[in-house]
Design brief:
140 residues, alpha/beta, Rossmann fold
Length: 140
């Protein structure tokens, strides 16, 4: 059937649900992300994020940009006092969705492949989901 979607996901989702609107509840007036960034300050491992049901990845890309800025703001002082260079935050993120077409679009628009990957994973398949999460976390 033309115009229908197999899983309830659809291209152009963000035209009806703007990324800025979807993120406003955690970016405006909320200390949630600042607290997360503060807790991560000084951590040796990358900041890790998993976006479940990522659609075309717009929210995933926006979230890593937000977190990168928050992590930078927490690292204003150099980690090594003898070196004035402040280390860039290391982010490792993944967006997953069960719709391969949406993931293909996410991969094509991904401007941060060194930080963010997209994979087709069916969350309703517990074994597949668990296997993916363990693999993703093991690569961080």
């Amino acid at each position: 059937m033309s115009g229908t979607t197999l899983y309830g996901n659809f291209h152009n989702y963000y035209k009806f649900n703007a990324v800025e609107e979807r993120l406003r509840c955690i970016t405006e007036g909320s200390q949630c992300l600042r607290c997360i960034a503060q807790e991560h300050m000084g951590a040796s491992e990358p900041f890790t994020m998993l976006d479940l049901g990522c659609n075309e990845g717009d929210v995933s890309l926006a979230m890593i940009a937000i977190m990168r800025e928050l992590l930078r703001s927490q690292r204003q002082a150099p980690l090594d006092p003898s070196n004035s260079i402040v280390a860039e935050p290391v982010i490792r993120a993944s967006g997953i969705d069960l719709d391969g077409e949406l993931i293909s679009r996410a991969v094509n628009k991904n401007t941060r492949p060194e930080e963010l990957s997209f994979e087709v994973v069916d969350l309703t398949n517990e074994l597949a989901f668990r296997t993916y999460v363990q693999s993703f976390l093991g690569s961080c």
